[in-house]
User: What shape does this take?
Amino acid sequence: MRWWDARTLRARIFIAFSVLILAVLLATLGLTQLIVGRDTGQTLSRELRTTGQVFESLLRERAIRLQTNSTLLASDFALKRVFATHFDPASYDSETLASAGLSYRQRIGVQLVWMTDEKGTLLAASPGEGRIGQSLASFAPLKDALESQAPAIAVVEVDNELFQMVVVPVLGPDVIGFLILGQVIDDRVAARLKDDTHSDVTFLTDSRVFASSWPDNSREHSQLTRVLPEVRQQNPRLLSISGERYLSLAVPVVAQLEKPLYVLIQGSYDRALAPLHTLQWRIAVIGMIALAGALITGVLLAGGITGPVRLLVNAMHEIPRGNLRHRLRIDRNDEIGFLARSFNEMAEGLEEREHIKDTFGRFVSRDVAEAVLSGRVPLAGERREVSILFQDIRGFTALSEKLDPVALLRLLNQFFTEVVAAVEAEGGVVKQFTGDGVMALFGAPQSRADHTERAVRAALGIVTRLASLNVLLQSAGAAPLQIGVGIHTGEVVAGLIGPDERIEYGVVGEAVNLASRIESLTKELTATILVSKEIAGRLGPEFVLGRTALLPVKGTSRPVEVVEVLPRPLPTLEP
Amino acid sequence: MYRHNLSCICIVALAMIVSGRLNAATAAISGSVSVADGAPVTDAVVFVQSPVPEPDKSRPMQVVDQVNKTFVPGLLPIVVGTAVRFPNHDQIHHHVYSFSPTKTFELPLYKGEAAAPVLFDKVGAVKIGCNIHDWMSGIILVLPSRHFAVTDSSGHFVLDDLPAGTYTVVAWHALSKLKPDETAQSVQVGAEVATVTFKLPLAPPRPRPAMHGNRADP
Assistant: This one.
């Protein structure tokens, strides 16, 4: 399996971790975007509103400072004296007044100094000499001052420039004229305000920009006048200017212009969001590191599981191959270790059982051993119908005297090997060896429905095998063996019999004894195979039956009817 | 402004005073000055226009004192040709000046009686101030003859010691929106006391630099 195959444990662990981490990552990023984004917007709006208020007070402060300066200038006695000369055309000194105006401009750093008489006629102007002699009585701040005879302030336009103007009366001691001072509101003022407030500042009406901290770029300026109608509200609005988003707020400025004047305050929304983006980048990088960690963890963790699992699988495969000695060496305290220990215990159990079965099978038949080990044999005993086969070598005593013991045992073992083979071929169990014969059971411990036929076939098998053996014996110059086989069926008690240390599977009952008696009858009738009437009655047509006899039997009052079973004749060849 | 108007008035008044001279007996004019809605106008000066200034030899010197950084009196009507002293009764310096075309003068920083008297030889209003105390303000009203009176708190005045005849009488007030000749009324004065009523529209009081919030405070 390739490691990225989704079915592997490794891939699943990695996918699970990744999905979890990605979910947390996305949730974190989303939440940050939502919360910080909203907070940033709110903070920026609040800052803009504060800046708007600061603006109003800045403009007011500027005006007050200007007014204070103007009042101080207007109180200058020398100035009053020069002003008063206009009462008398003979002594009126316009040149002195004009030069004084220029001097005052430089002294307090204003861009405009005008002087009028007490009715508002311009006496001296710097700049704007061309206006001298004109009446400014209807000019915004002077109009107010003429009415109130007190200082007046206004934002006005003079020669396409925006001025903050202050008019103060010159008292001598009544009003003998007015001093008008103007501070220009130009790009430099806007740039200075930007330095103070960190927001872009533009003074504008909906048709023109008077001053701006934006670069003097007509494209942007036209954009600014266009957006003005959208932002003339209390709340800041988000506007895109040259591809960057700006939160913009328009604050009205009291001015004597044809159109309402606003100061447009703009803070870059994108720049305010920059820390958020940095944060999101960092979160994303941490997320990637976590993902890499998940990959490594997945590989290591899966390796820690699949490695031992593969070992376990290999070990499992050894079991059906019969290698029960295979053990796992996994020294872990977790579930894998538990699994390995369980496997080892299982293999040990299997090996032990196999060992017992092997050992057991030497003394009892394999069938019995298996039946006992598998627990199919009820220990308390049971009644069941079985067929019992007794076999005996006829004339064995005489034979044992003729043969030396080694040769005798070799012959016997050779013979019994054939007998056991014949019995086991029919699913029977050789229960015991009786020196020159055997006792075999059919239908116990393994229950078999056709135990009678099996028993008869086994007997025929023994006879056939004996014939082959006899051919060998005769060729070796020995006399052939003759045997007798008696078979009976009936109910017996089957179970484990004997003291604990020598317990063995066995059957007891009248049927066992009768089978043995029938076997002993074979000598009298010179028959090889004799079966009881109960057996014969259950045999199919393929069996060849011979003589029938009713004979008395030792230990029973009633005579027993026995039937001879003959080997099947060889098929005759058709002529 | 005054200089032009007063010269016109003088010419008109000249003829009237000449006619008045024909009557040798003394008479009087009494009356009142009020605003349009009838409220009395205090400190208005009602005087007889005289084509030729008639200096009053009996009172060649008058005084505008300076007490508690205030001119006392705040309004001083005098006859043309009168000299005015400006004694300083404060313990500090004052710098009295006037930029009025009627009489431009300056008494640079001084204490006590150090300043020389100033002669007012032209008819008109002279607004005086102090260069170092902005709130100090006063008016010396230079009149063509000794026939003038100042209204009392109920707005009344009496011009007596007038020979019988026909006179042009005008009213002046510091806040009046009318020039004096615009208030001119011709009055026939005989044995009876003639009565004249003036209606003077007044401008609102002008804001003045305050002294501790109140001009009267020391």
About this structure: The mean pLDDT of chain B is 82. The CA atoms of residues 44 and 173 of chain B lie 5 Å apart. The helical segments of chain B are 2-20.
